[in-house]
Amino acid sequence: MVVGDDAKLTAYFFTTFEEASRILQLASTSADSTLRDMGREIDAKRRAEGKKVLGGREREVEVGVNPWKGARISTVPLDFAVTLASRGKVGGAYFRVAPAEDDVQDALSIDTTKTELKDGKVPLFYIEDFETKTKQSTIGGEAGMIPLYFQKKQLLRDWKTENPKKGESGGGAPEVRVTELFSVLQKMAQPGVIENDGDIGKLVLVSPVGSATKAAACGKKGGSEAPFILGERIVVL
Questions:
Q1: I want to staple 11 with a disulfide (CB 3.0 to 4.6 A). Which of 1, 23, 50, 221 is the partner?
Q2: What does the pLDDT look like over 182-204, one tens digit per residue?
Q3: CA-based nearest residue to 148, from 161, 166, 130
Q4: What are phi and psi of 65, to 5 degrees?
Q5: What average pLDDT does the segment 149-161 reach?
């Protein structure tokens, strides 16, 4: 949880492990740089006063330590993150679901009416009339599902897998379109919409490639520690 430029205390849930790792690395590098500059200022001041430069534990107390060192990436189900993000301010803090930067750029390249994606908005990619098959154990056979992807490249890869002949003919994939996670969920939650709109009931969110593996690895690393604890937070100014 961080205090942003808008002075709001905000927690971010990332849609991919890679984006969480990238942001954590940026935060740690930035903190190291800030502490290094603070240390130099303190050293210069002490020298000017004829004092000995601090070291070891005394220096840590005076300058501080990087709060991101030893931070662990954890994982929670999407519905948990969406629930908190949908509630607005919770316990004095805001929650956001954050897409990967590459996915944001892909979305903006499709929807050219926007120059940036509002904080907390999550793009979903799809191809018109593209459906995948899934087995239904209750009635047997297969049913068509309309997949919505967090990553454009994954959508195109799956489309080519499902349509090998179209890819071989040189026609290429059809137009990729983009919608938004929370607008889709809001539509799905409207009374009677699933019963009256067959396509809404067929929508399925496809997690980014490797998410299940990364989630299992995060859980194993965390051991018996809870992945997320409401009511506890570390604020980094």
A1: 1
A2: 999 998 888 877 677 778 888 99
A3: 130
A4: -125, 160
A5: 94
Question: Residues with Cβ < 8 Å from 145, sequence gap 6 or more?
Answer: 131, 132, 133, 134, 202, 203, 204
Q: How far apart are CA 150 and CA 68, in angstroms?
A: 27
Name the band, by pLDDT with cuts 50, 70 and 90, for residue 62: confident
Q: How far apart are CA 40 and CA 62, in angstroms?
A: 12
Q: Which helix (H) or strand (E) holds 142?
A: strand 142-149
pLDDT surpassing 50 at residue 232: yes
Of the candidates 210, 214, 186, 211, the one whose C-alpha atom is nearest the C-alpha of residue 200 is 186
Query: How many Å separate Cα 210 from the centre of its chain?
Result: 14
Q: Average pLDDT, whole number, for the chain? A: 86
Domain boundaries, the chain: 1-99+209-237, 101-207
User: What residues form DSSP beta bridges with 86?
Assistant: none
**Which pLDDT value is given to residue 138?**
47
229 DSSP β-pair partners? none
Residues in the chain: 237
101-207 is classed CATH 3.20.20.70:
no
Tokens of 212: 């299940």
Maximum distance among all alpha carbons in the chain?
84
